[in-house]
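Form 12-C: Joint structure prediction
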Amino acid sequence: MAAPMELSCWGGDWGLPSLHPECLTVMAYAKFSGAPLTVNTINNSWRAPKGDLPVLVSEDIVISQPAKILNFLRKQKYNADYDLSAKQGADTLAYIALLEEKLLPALLHTFWIEAENYCSVTKPWFASKIAFPLSLYLPGKMSREALNRILLTKGGPPLYSLTEVEAQIYRDAKECLNLLSKRLGTAQFFFGDTPTTLDAFVFGFLAPIYKVCFPRVQLQEHLKQLPNLCRFCDDILTCYFRLTVSGYSSAGQDTADANLQKLTQLVNKESNLIEKMDDNLRRSPQHPPRKLTTLKLAAGGEESSPMSRLSP
Amino acid sequence: SSLSTAAEPWPENAALYQQLKEEQILLSDNASSLAVQAFLQMCNLPIRVICRANAEYMSPSGKLPFIHVGNQVVSELGPIVQFVKAKGHSLSDGLDEVQKAEMKAYMELVNNMLLTAELYLQWCDDVTVEEITHPRYGSPYPWPLNRILSYQKQWEVRRKMKAIGWAGKTLEQVLEDVDQCCHALSQRLGTQPYFFNKQPTELDALVFGHLFTILTTQLITDELSEKVKNYSNLTAFCRRIEQQYFEGHEKDSSTIAARSSKKSLLR
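Section 2 - Result
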């Protein structure tokens, strides 16, 4: 339990801690169960041991799939399902299977296969997180894997063309969203008042659909008609991830942080300068003290103006 | 066309097509076929089982079983349930919305874990492939066609396993997944006669199809059936459905006692 645990994930945007459903699932579960994870938003997938994120590293142990990572956390006594009955545990497995079979294909399609979405949002975003020249190759590879998965699992005859498969998978996904909404009802989480593994999985799959701004958004529009699911995602984001849900892109947050950093550096530089000047002045005693004060005031003046720019 | 489907009543000569029972059919297809047969029995709709070596190629989706009703051909349990519903027969109408969601989720669990495990065992476990699958799958065809067809099918299944992340699993891990699935089904069933208490639904048919086939099919080892036998309420469930819906029927339909090459009766 004392061994430090590090999770490597894809980063986030649009108010989400991560864009990748599996990474989100693991991050949410860690928050729910109180597992102390250091999260690294990795930007080079090849360095991850199995090549696929999310990856958990704890001392010498490396674990790479969400189900296995969650199992590991449970063994380390970080168990979010402690209060569940055996039947609820069974229901968890069943609903996760439903998500994987019915919702995941459409999610993959929206992100990786729908041409407008892929070219204008997904590919640039993922490419910007990886170093060149991997950025030219990896998004394409992820897209091909997604297409492969969809065609192999859903694309047998008579659905010969991709457009027919697309129609079917979106129908399935919308039905799945409806079923989830009915199952959730007015409760806060799927099994009462505390979130569990199932909530982590549902959140991991729903939040990217809900928040990421794509040009083609049929799934998002359907989801927005199910207010209890939207409220479910927002609740988890505010309570467990402490992110604002106004749709404020974290890119804005980053710029503010960058500004703050620059200004801090400026202030430090100036205080170094002041110290140097102080030394010089002390070494040459003919300078009247007034100049010192003037200098300090000037420095202070300059100091204060960048500070004022900090106001949010 | 769905209007015309609803208009016609269920004909007497409705037929279900599957591969040859004794020599050719594999574990996963047998399970799927039995599930459909159980479902139709539960709906009280008569069906004849016809075995053809080329059943897989006759199927509109390439998957088995398929039913031939009037002038319609429908394959796989999901679409067959829809089709039967359009004709006015349904087992799940009495369920409320949350129960229907649960039923669908558990059906996906069976497909996701049990069916995939069966496919893995048949096509990715080298010993089973060599000794059972290849001989059976190609048995109606002369050499070299039999080998070519079964290698082709094996390649297809292995591609799919790779895409969904099962290619890296060991047999032990797959058996553990089966155990986890059975555990979940056993918990959900509890002491009830059926999954939704008094009346069977398509979920009961699906679970019966898979579990019964696993229990009564002889493979290289008994590891798979042992996993199911660990759960006494599941074996009792299978026996109950067998007695209620299959006993007293012709030898040709639904199997159970008539299998010579792979048989170990429920004890």
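Section 3 - Comments
Chain B has eleven helices and four strands. Residues 97-124 of chain B form the longest helix (28 residues).
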